[in-house]
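Box S1 | Example of a co-folding query
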Amino acid sequence: MTETNEATRTTYRVCVLPGDGIGPEIMAEALRVLEHVGEAYGVRFACEEHLIGGAAIDATRAAGRTPTALPEETLTAAKASDAVLLAAVGGPKWDGAKLGEARPEQGLLAIRKSLGLYLNLRPVRAYAALANASTLKPEVISGADLLIVRELTGGLYFGAHETQADVPGAGANGAAGMHATDVMEYSEYEVERVVRWAFEAASRRAVRKVTSVDKANVLSCSRMWREVVHRVAAEYPQVECSDMLVDNCAMQLVANPGQFSVLVTENTFGDILSDEASMLSGSLGMLASASLGDGTALYEPSHGSAPDIAGQGVANPLAQILSVAMMLRYSMHMDAAADRIERAVDAVLASGLRTRDIAEPATPADKIVGTRAMGQAVIDAFEAAE
Ligand code: NAD
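Box S1 (continued) | Returned holo structure for nicotinamide-adenine-dinucleotide
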């Protein structure tokens, strides 16, 4: 039955980028879910598949073009879409790329930069049904529900990178050796737009609290970051605000994750902390993310291309499916559909079904399923939902 369509349009263009490794396997399940959403809500998702990452490097090289991880046609399609749904890029095949040669992750950095995606959003929930799948004690993670807001286009990853060889005195015992430099830099506006988004998000959450993470005792970038946070915080008296040093935060995330609601931080710290926080959910295979800017947004799982299990049909598709839910919520304003997917995932987990990465020693063998069966279970639960 077609439900009331709260989407503002009846057709949305989605640029689909399966990428490398397990990407195509988990993307297939996400697209099957999306197709059911379309049927249920009377919306057409016009999905167009394009290359990114290692697959794009191979294809452009085979076509006699300059190898690139982000072909022009992919970027053009992405910009013309309402949303980009990406899986993951990378793998050992491309790890040996020499300096100056194309690398899969360049595709990711370039598409984020080209789409102006300056903010990454990663919700992390401790699923009650997966409490034992985490390496952390259930009583520690119980009730944890946080939103990590990470700056995405500034800082160390986008500053100048340089490696020099044969620099006098850079080697052992005063000999010549290599010397490398990576520049961390931020402008005030880059910090403010992310921090403001974090306060807006916090003001709509049950726990109105922002924890800003920095290294203000050492870094100039962090001292400026803190100043901006305090200025913006004054505009949100209803939101509790505190600063936390990144090293302390790394510890607090595993010691007492329930204290956090919205956590906002710069690019590199956010990269590391969000992977650490993923353990609260039991597996990287559970975490979706959204990258937002002023134009087309991009949705992707937080994990990589998992080359160690690629092609085996055992990858967990839930993070990719939950990325679809985020896409529906943030790019299509289909909140009810997004909620329904998330409830379907909850129901599947509550039924005991597990992919290998979230299975426990006590999980019965007949409850451990592959990628396709997990995708089908979510579709069945979605269809069964009111
Ligand atoms: P990874 O996230 O790919 O894998 C880490 C571990 O988690 C592996 O054991 C893997 O099997 C497991 N895992 C990840 N996703 C899973 C899923 N959906 N289901 C079940 N298990 C899952 O990280 P890595 O091994 O450090 O990197 C592998 C490749 O991915 C590298 O080339 C790296 O550069 C790339 N990478 C890409 C992205 C991205 O595309 N956003 C992010 C991180 C790493």
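The chain is about 40% helix and 20% strand. The chain has two domains: 9-125+281-386, 135-156+184-280.
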